[in-house]
Specification:
With 252 residues, this protein is mostly helical. It has one domain (11-237): Heme oxygenase-like (Heme Oxygenase, Chain A, Up-down Bundle), CATH 1.20.910.10. 67% of the residues lie in helices and 0% in strands. The chain has helices at 14-28, 34-41, 46-73, 77-91, 99-109, 114-119, 125-140, 143-149, 156-170, 185-203, 207-235.
C-alpha cells in the first residue's frame, strides 16, 4: 500500500485526490483515539471530562485567529467573504456570542470556573504547544496547505454523532444544554468543508501541490490526536499531571 507521504507522486485526478483525503480521515481522525472511545463508552471520570473541555477550549479559542491569518493570505474577495463566516461562527456577531462562548458554557456546565478556562493557564503544556503549532502552520505555510488543514471538518459530523448521544446517555450530569455547542456545528462544518474541499481540489493541480494538501491534512489530524494523547497521559489510569495543570480540586 502506498503511504500518505507519497500518495500523489504520479499525480491524481480530483476524484482520486478526494478519495485519499477521505482515507486520511478514516485512518487518522481522532474518533479512533482511545480517549474518545472511553468518552463514548461512559468510562471517563468527571475530572477527565472537565480536563477535556478545559484543554479543548484552547483549540476553540485559536480557530478565529487561524482563520484571520488565512484571510490575510488571500487576495480573492469571494474567498474572503466565504471564509470569514468561520470567524463569525466562533466569535459571534458581538465578539462573544458564538461557538467559543458556547464551548465556555459547556465547560462551566461541567463545573469549571469560566475565568480559569478562558485564561488557559491550567491547560496542559502539550495542548498549548499543539494549538500554537496549528496557528503557526496556517500563518506560515501556503494558502493551499492552510485550507487543506481545515478538512478535518469533513469528519467532524461523525465524531459529534458519536459523542453527543453517548455523553447524554452515559453521564447523568451532562444535559442537552451542556452540549448546546454541538447543535450548529454539523451544519456549519458541512458548509465549510464543502467550500474548502472544492478549493483544494481545484488548486492542488500538480503532484507537488496534491501531496502538500494531503500532508497538511495529516498534520492537522496529528494535532488533534496529540491533544488527546496528552489528556490520556495526564488524566488516564496512572496518569501524570504536569505541575500547574488542571486538577478537579483546582477547578474553582
Amino acid at each position: 500500500m502506498i503511504g500518505f507521504h507519497d500518495a500523489a507522486r504520479n499525480g491524481l485526478s480530483a476524484v482520486e485526490l478526494e478519495a485519499v483525503l477521505r482515507q486520511v480521515g478514516a485512518e487518522r481522525y481522532h474518533n479512533r483515539h482511545p480517549y474518545h472511545h472511553r468518552m463514548v463508552s461512559g468510562a471517563l471520570s468527571k475530572q477527565e471530562l472537565q480536563a477535556w473541555a478545559l484543554n479543548r477550549y484552547c483549540y476553540q479559542a485559536v480557530i478565529p485567529r487561524k482563520d484571520a491569518a488565512i484571510l490575510t493570505r488571500c487576495e480573492d474577495p469571494a474567498f474572503r467573504a466565504e471564509w470569514r463566516k468561520r470567524i463569525e461562527d466562533h466569535d459571534g456577531w458581538d465578539g462573544w456570542s458564538g461557538g467559543i462562548a458556547r464551548w465556555l458554557h459547556l465547560a462551566t456546565s461541567l463545573g469549571l470556573d469560566a475565568d480559569a478556562v478562558k485564561s488557559q493557564r491550567l491547560a496542559l503544556p502539550a495542548t498549548r504547544f499543539a494549538v500554537g503549532a496549528y496557528l503557526s502552520f496556517c500563518s506560515e505555510r501556503t494558502l493551499l496547505e492552510a485550507v487543506a488543514s481545515s478538512l478535518t471538518e469533513l469528519f467532524s459530523p461523525v465524531i459529534i454523532g458519536e459523542r453527543v448521544p453517548a455523553m447524554l446517555a452515559k453521564y447523568d450530569y451532562v444535559t442537552t444544554d451542556t452540549l448546546a455547542y454541538f447543535t450548529k456545528r454539523p451544519e456549519q462544518a458541512a458548509r465549510d468543508s464543502d467550500f474548502a474541499l472544492d478549493y483544494v481540489l481545484r488548486h492542488a493541480d500538480t503532484p507537488e501541490r496534491q501531496q502538500a494538501a494531503i500532508d497538511a491534512l495529516v498534520f492537522k489530524c496529528d494535532i488533534l490526536w496529540a491533544m488527546l494523547d496528552a489528556l490520556q497521559h495526564a488524566y488516564g489510569e496512572d496518569g501524570h499531571v504536569p505541575p500547574g495543570a488542571f486538577l478537579s480540586e483546582r477547578a474553582g
